[in-house]
Amino acid sequence: MEILTLLMLSWSAILGVLRETPAEDQFGEEVRWSAFDSKPFVLVIADRESAEKGKGIGAALHSIFNGDYIAPEEHLHESPPTENIKIIPVAALPDVPGIFKWLFRRGFKKESPVGVILDWDSRLAKVCGYVPGSVAIVVKLPDRSELQNWIVRSPEEAISKVRESLK
Prior knowledge:
The protein is of the alpha/beta class and about 170 residues long. The chain has helices spanning about 10-20, 50-65, 100-110, 125, 155-165, and strands at about 25, 40-45, 85-90, 115-120, 135-140, 150. It is built from five helices and six strands, in the order αββαβαβαββα. The protein has a six-stranded mixed sheet with strand order 1-4-3-2-5-6. α2 (about 50-65) links the parallel β2 and β3 (about 85-90). α2 crosses α5 (about 155-165). The relative contact order is 0.26.
């Protein structure tokens, strides 16, 4: 599989897609994107098929760029000084019927101590060029409207791409 790089991805396009139905985390909190304006952030997008791989990539990114810092529960909007890059997990969940969303939300509350964006209809994933069954990373730097995104196969590849973006 070739690394996929999409060049025409803009932050305003993503915000436009999310304007009608804002993204939320597993705690039912609406994502306040302005909370991430002050430092680089990386969306790590995965679906049910690629969830374990996505967790590993997100954990590796967090470890390399933020060290041993362990986030408290409901950390999505908090940004302590020791956190150099915000790593934001996104779960693409387009096949979850409405009546079962509460069950998935409860499962994410139990399994993840940090906020996970629950992308119920994959609107965020689609606008970011996500390919089902893969893991995508999307890098946003402060004061820039363009985004860089890749489909990645390993933690090492993700780390390399984020480092490349920060140059």
